[in-house]
């Protein structure tokens, strides 16, 4: 593996690059799949390392593996990354699988939050929210 693309350009990415210093490292910080794909083709990239969950939750692994068969992408696919990227999604999955987790509620409006808090305080002895 010679050509590695690290998505992002912050401190975390610099540390990753330092650990891979025997390879040809490229950095790219734009979150545009077509441009990343084109960059991979132009630089003959073998491995893509998305350093941030933003890339993974957006589906970069799925998109690149669908169109660039010879490029490996480190990390989970979009569905798997959603477990880390969305606490609501994670809680839903935990409840569906009967895994122990704290009680939670999801709200779409401020009014829903207010109603929940009023109801919560009326029915709970322990008032920690």
TrEMBL record:
Signal peptide: none annotated. It holds the Pfam family GARS_N. Gene3D superfamilies: 3.40.50.20. Residues 28-84 form the Phosphoribosylglycinamide synthetase N-terminal domain. One of its GO terms (biological process) is purine nucleobase biosynthetic process. GO terms for molecular function: phosphoribosylamine-glycine ligase activity. InterPro entries: PreATP-grasp_dom_sf (IPR016185), PRibGlycinamide_synth (IPR000115), PRibGlycinamide_synth_N (IPR020562). PANTHER family: PHOSPHORIBOSYLAMINE--GLYCINE LIGASE, PHOSPHORIBOSYLAMINE--GLYCINE LIGASE, CHLOROPLASTIC. This is Phosphoribosylglycinamide synthetase N-terminal domain-containing protein. It comes from viral metagenome.
């Amino acid at each position: 593996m010679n050509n590695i693309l690290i998505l992002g350009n912050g401190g975390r990415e610099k540390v990753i690059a330092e650990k891979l210093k025997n390879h040809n490292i490229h950095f790219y910080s734009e979150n545009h799949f077509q441009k990343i794909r084109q960059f991979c083709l132009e630089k003959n990239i073998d491995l893509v390392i998305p350093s941030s969950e933003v890339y993974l939750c957006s589906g970069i692994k799925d998109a690149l593996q669908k169109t660039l068969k010879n490029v490996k992408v480190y990390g989970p696919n979009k569905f798997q990354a959603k477990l880390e990227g969305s606490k609501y999604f994670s809680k839903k999955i935990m409840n569906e699988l009967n895994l122990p987790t704290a009680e939670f509620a999801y709200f779409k409006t401020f009014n829903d939050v207010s109603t929940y808090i009023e109801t919560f305080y009326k029915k709970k002895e322990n008032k920690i929210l």
